[in-house]
Design a protein that fits this description.
214 residues; 17% helix
Length: 214
């Protein structure tokens, strides 16, 4: 009996060791048209690192008709979630539940990429707020596009609008009218016009947030 118990324990351990559900990985390349990514698992199997897994579907936050996407670059850390059934079965449009095929279960070939995996210390301290409010941190010169990928209408920044209004107020406050008299008789009215403020959309537009027409 002890031999059977040992054998059963060994077999369970072998099955467990050979079963992959989730694994850390790094991005090798990203195709936004898919969107898919080629990734390399950050593990070793029998002393060897697995090859690059090509064309893994990337799963972005998407629910309730709302989605958030961004670009991935080589070296980004992600998590590979290994499906219990093949991509073909899950993504062929059949109604759920899907009955897994015995030949394609728990295979790295059927992994999907979950973005957002971050090792401790990866993000700078200014990517967080002490009060817990959300912060979207992105590269210098990049903008957040609201509504659609084609969004290009810039939002105005409140402090810049206030600066422009202050210029207008100052211009009107300094505006004067000058009356010229000729030999004691009221003559024609002449106006000394103060130079009014000029500005371009860049004076008030945000370069960090773009929106489409509501």
């Amino acid at each position: 009996m002890a031999d059977l118990t040992d054998l059963a324990t060994y077999l369970v351990r072998r099955v467990r060791d050979g079963l992959t559900l989730a694994v850390a990985a790094e991005v090798v390349s990203y195709d936004a048209s898919g969107p898919t990514a080629d990734v390399r698992p950050l593990v070793t199997v029998d002393g060897e690192r697995p090859p690059v897994v090509s064309g893994c579907p990337v799963q972005w936050p998407n629910a309730g008709g709302r989605a958030l996407t961004w670009g991935l670059v080589a070296g980004d850390r992600v998590t590979l979630l290994v499906r219990s059934q093949s991509h073909d079965e899950v993504d062929d449009g059949r109604p759920v539940p899907v009955t897994p095929a015995l030949g394609r279960r728990h295979s790295l070939a059927d992994a999907v990429v979950q973005v957002g995996y971050t090792t401790p210390g990866t993000l700078d301290s200014d990517a967080y707020r002490n009060d817990g409010q959300p912060v979207l941190s992105y590269g210098s010169g990049e903008a957040l596009h609201l509504g659609a990928s084609t969004a290009d209408k810039a939002l105005a920044l409140a402090y810049k609008v206030r600066d422009e209004l202050d210029k207008i107020d100052a211009a009107f406050s300094s505006h004067t009218h000058q009356v010229t008299y000729n030999s004691g008789t009221a003559g024609p009215l002449t106006t000394a016009t103060a130079g009014g403020p000029t500005y371009t959309p860049a004076d008030v537009d945000s370069t960090r947030v773009k929106t489409d027409d509501p």
